[in-house]
What we know:
It is a single chain. The protein has helices at 7-39, 66-77, 84-95, 130-143, 148-153, 162-167, and strands at residues 63-64, 102-106, 110-115, 120-125, 156-160, 174-175. It is 46% helix and 14% strand. A hairpin with a 4-residue loop joins β3 and β4. A four-stranded mixed beta sheet has the order 2-3-4-5. A two-stranded parallel sheet has the order 1-6. It is globular and about 60 Å long. By secondary structure, it is of the alpha/beta class.
Amino acid sequence: MLSLIPGNTKILIIILLIAILGLVFIIISSLFSKKELRTSPLPSSVPSFSPAPSSEITQPPITYESPKTKKLLDRLENRQTLSSLDQAAKDSLLSSIGNQSSILITTSTFKVEYVKAADEFMVEILTTDIDLAKEETVSWFKEQGFSDEGICQVPAVFYLNFEVSNKLRGSGYKFDPMAPGC
């Protein structure tokens, strides 16, 4: 096969093959040397890690209402068929974002994001006035054409923003991850 290739090109091909073989050798050598480093003991000057005592482990900032959380999980696992009007509202909303995962709206109190893989609406609460944020979110969904039942069945999953959750730490607040009335 090399006899069909002109002389200068043969030399270039041979040099290129040697370079590739050299790179492969270097990569394989470095993999084996790194493996040896990983299996060698730590030097005595490196401090060992010890977990914090259980008294120092922090509790989650807030707890979720167990019965409501179970109800939400059941709704997610056993999806109900939406009414034709609620399905039309959902289809219209999703077509506005190209039927892809996307943030639909962000206000000072809430953010609604559609997650295509899960086929659900995630509602992030951005304020400690959770009831207000939920009311405003429900109003927004209704403006899009959803009924109260449709908001529950679509489903809309509520969760607290990290900072909001931390502000409520120690308050004893139990969060309901569902829309009011669901």
